[in-house]
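Quick one, T. Sequence first:
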Amino acid sequence: MRIAFSGAAGTGKSHLAKIVAEWLSLPMCPVGSRTVCKEMGFEHAYDVDKAGMRPEFQKRLCRAKREWEADTAAFVTDRSHLDNLAYTSLHSIDTVGVEFLQTILRANACYTHIIHIDARAEDAFMNLDDPARHQSRIYHRHFAMLLAALWTYYVAEGQQILWVTSPDLSYREKQVFQFLERR
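Structure tokens:
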């Protein structure tokens, strides 16, 4: 199984991904925006933006994630390649050319199961206490809408996707476990 958790910041992706990885005894993908930021000498992705390096950051993130996933037979990851496409689109739309889009879609097709935590509703459950996160709920809602639209169009053949909309954590956990037990 290659399981990707997807959704806006603060929606519980990391929490659920860690529980699922432990439950299934699968490795967690260690590649994420924070690791790539640190490799580039920045603390947060928003510092990358201030330096005008978002396009380079997104390409590095995509490449590092693809390489790790290609070398790992089964895993859980906190964020999909479509999440990265959504962030790139929000911050530097001019860099989303045909080649980058095709690279993202090919990389995203490796997931067998996608758990999308949808946070478009007014009662979205975004925890924005982390200083590494953008503090604007409007920003995260825009991201959530864009990501939901991307998932509507770009689910690859054979991929199974679960849309999680409940703000109740225990119910979300139950939904995820039921979805994965059907594998």
